């Protein structure tokens, strides 16, 4: 008989990790998340930071600070940092205070639902230094697209959702998630461009 190598262990569910962090001791801040999850904190922070604009609700621009933090974190991935650096003011940003608990509860349900259909695919794609660079660049693209979307338009939803799906794909090492993330980002950016051009054309017609 020929022995077959055992399948690599499946990464722990993101929803389980986040729920354990929420229920555990310690501050529920950016710094607390970073201290607990280390390098995986990059992807987990992208899920949380872009999770708010990924909801199909107008945010009136209040999520811009989250998108700026995500861009700064993504730049660190591109530059090859393994440890997360943030200004002290941002590290103390509350992620799970009383006003955020309801949102995080909903986000956990969405993540848990997505995880039912996920499994490790093409894991070798996630095991190179270049993977972090590509990951960082795509997060920057999606975060910038969400940032420049007009307030109350809802156009930040698809680019932000793309970042969330991408981060989950990295955490779960599932290449299919990358495909879905790219589709969401491309659709969101295309929609912004098309509607932006239509708005400019409409304003020009009134002048």
Q: Which term fits the overall shape? A: globular
Number of domains: 1
* C-alpha Rg (nearest Å): 18 Å
Q: Please provide the count of β strands.
A: 0
Mean pLDDT over the residues: 78
Proportion of beta-strand residues:
under 5%
Sequence-ordered SSE layout with sheet pairings:
Elements: H1 14-23, H2 30-37, H3 41-49, H4 51-54, H5 64-78, H6 88-91, H7 98-115, H8 129-148, H9 157-172, H10 175-206
Helix pairs in contact: 1-7, 2-3, 3-5, 3-9, 5-8, 8-9, 9-10
Could you describe the 3D structure shown?
The protein is mostly helical and about 210 residues long. It has one domain. Helices cover about 65% and strands about 0% of the residues. The chain has ten helices and no strands. The radius of gyration is 18 Å and the shape is globular. The mean pLDDT is about 80.
Keywords:
globular, 207 residues, 10 helices, mainly alpha
Short characterization:
The chain has 207 residues and is mostly helical.
